[in-house]
Amino acid sequence: MPESPILVPADLRSDLAIREIRSTIVDVPTVRRHKLSSLSVTAQSYVVVELRLANGAEGIGEAATLGGPRWSEESVEAIKANIDAHLAPAVIGLGADRPELVAARMDAAAKRNNAAKAAIKTALFDALARTLGVPVALLLGGAVRESFPVLWTLASGDPGQEIEEAEAKLAGRLHETFKVKIGAQSPEADLARLKRLSTALAGRARLIVDANQAWDETTATRSLPMLADLGIALVEQPLPAWNVAGMARLRANPTVPLMADECVFTTHDMLQVAALGAADVVSLKLVKHAGLLNLKRVAAVAEAAGIGLYGGCLLESSIGASAHLHAFAGLRELAWGCEHFGPQILTDDLVTQPLRFEDFRVHLPAGPGLGVTLDRDKLRHYARA
User: Fold this and answer.
1) Cα(230)–Cα(111) distance, rounded to whole angstroms?
2) Which residues are catalytic?
3) What is the mean pLDDT of residues 294-323?
């Protein structure tokens, strides 16, 4: 057949121009205290981005943080300020059909600010997909799965409460893998807590742990064999993010598989981890990787190195969780599942129809764009004054 160019009508190109970007800080209470090694939260904070195209289509995105600029350098206050003052002005007027150009303009306007950029890019893909009447996953290469094994995080620090919480999730067929946050207490206290959990849930649940960079190399060397004896399936980021060489040394004496999280933001980070053999698994997060396309790039580097993929979260609402699921849907391998339980730990959600959790899986929302609709009444209710 003779080749002929695909002609894009001029009016369609102009219809796809970005006309407006709005950002709103919201604070949504959590059902219980969520305690990490260095912080704890009783409410989760987000920046919700609304992006409108010239054709009237609107897309939404979300940037999540934990406890202010302590997990990474970004806070919701800084995210909103940089979106309003630098990132949004850099891309107003550009076409939604040119996401790489939009990304390049934002990179020129501000260094890093990965969560802020990710929220804008998500809203851009949502608006473009809604214009075309297709899901975001299709724009990223199409879906190979429509549901995902999903874990729940135990992070109160009280083993009695955590056992009760895990039992309820098992009984409801919501979660059968649990990630336990450790590092806020001494290693001995954490090991005693994990022993209680592993004994109570033996044969019915899988446990992984996340130290959130709390240990030094000596503590990790001593503790990892004991975690292996307890049947822990995976240990996330036991060492500080800067100590990638230390992660490699731990992995050279295998006990429990290691997952990289805070040490992998960019493809360059992922390449270094792969080159040093510093991880068995990597946690993928939009707030780290600065958008849907970059997340898939990091995943591609990991796959090329034989490193497993895990869908990480930062307690996103159904907005941010849906964006992640659309990216994860196109990954051929997602051996470790995902942890997008965030909508369930909130006392309320920000969309009209939250994500569906059943049979130990979270399901990709159907419909155009992200498949979720912003509830503007709730946005106003939880918006920070």
Assistant:
1) 43
2) 181, 339
3) 97
